[in-house]
Give the backbone structure.
Amino acid sequence: MIVVSDTSPISNLIQIGKLDLLRDIFGEVMIPPIVQEEILELVSFGIDLKMFIAADWLSVHSVRDQSKITALLTDLDEGESEAIVLAQELSAEWILMDERAGTKIAEGLGLHPIGIIGVLIKAKEKGLITNVASVVEDLRTKAGFWVTDKLLMKIKKELGE
């Protein structure tokens, strides 16, 4: 299975100590160089990156078609743009991305985006976590991940939590 990630799912999972969920669900995850750079910059905010650096299941792959990246930069940031183009070039089954604009563009290009909440639902289905809502609450408090109370209530209801 080929999976490409943008910065936010990885950085958010690092901040709550659950980066390995990506490995346990998807096996290998590929990132473009700019995503690696953006994650490494988190050290300047005091975020411990040991688990990221040790993650041998994360691999960096360069994007070949720079013109596609340039075209996407009018609407998206560099990480999203490179992740989308890399996912296209590798015919990825999933692209991990949370930002609405990037998700919409990825879908329009025939990609299959999944956000961090979707990842957590998969983790629960695989028995890797027992409660999605509590992990989402950790994301809110520790990583500053934005989730409305309404969405959190919907998740709890749908998952019987």
